[in-house]
Amino acid sequence: MLIREPTLADVDRIADVHTRARASYYQTGGLLADSTADPAGADHRREAWTQAVESPDHTIYCAVIDDKVVGAVAMGPALTPTPDGTPAGQLFQIHVDPPHWSKGIGTRLHATFLTYLRRTNTPTGLLEVWQQNTRALLFYAHHGWSPTGTHRPGPHQTTYQSMHLKLPTPA
């Protein structure tokens, strides 16, 4: 597996991976397939990934196996400040194609985010995760993330939970 920066030629595949991963975790979390299969949503994700790849404010990497994109991670400066004013980086999303789950790809993409935090001298990571996505909640808890106690509305009367990660202070 190779972790690399994507090009615009990778955007369609990244958006497809995002769409499949999203459908899987939303359906596992109790949403009906019809509510996750909106073609306009897929177009929106493709446009958003195109903008992210082109943006100087976002850092994007993709996971590639046999020249096929199987995962992606997006990160950048935090969208909201931390309560104590500590500089933070935002983990916007990690997506892995469901047939490749539990093979270490998400962990490698997460490690790429940690490298980003260290490279930017940012001691705190922030993210939001859908509260029904128990798989992601367990993944992030395993990697040291903790709930911040804040939530925002999600689909069908659910919520997104904010989490944070404090990097250890170098000795």
UniProtKB/TrEMBL annotation:
Q: Which SUPFAM superfamilies match?
A: Acyl-CoA N-acyltransferases (Nat) (SSF55729)
Q: Name one GO molecular function term.
A: acyltransferase activity, transferring groups other than amino-acyl groups
- What does the organism's lineage look like at the top? Bacteria, Bacillati, Actinomycetota, Actinomycetes, Micromonosporales
Pfam family, any one: Acetyltransf_1
Any idea what this protein is called?
N-acetyltransferase
Limits of the N-acetyltransferase domain: 1-168
